[in-house]
Amino acid sequence: MKSGKGFIAALDQSGGSTPKALKLYGVDESAYSNEAEMFDRIHEMRSRLITSPVFNGDRVLGAILFELTMERSIEGLGSAEYLWQRKRVVPFLKVDNGLADEADDVQTMKSIPELGARIEAANRHEVFGTKMRSVINMANASSIRKIVDQQFSIGKEIISGGLVPIIEPEVNIKSSQKAEAEAILKDELLHFAASLSSSENIMLKLSLPTVPDLYKELVDHPRVVRVVALSGGYSRDEANALLSKNHGVIASFSRALAEGLSAQQSESEFNATLDKTIQSIYEASLT
Question: N or C terminus of the chain: which is more exposed, having fewer CB within 10 Å?
Answer without folding.
Answer: C
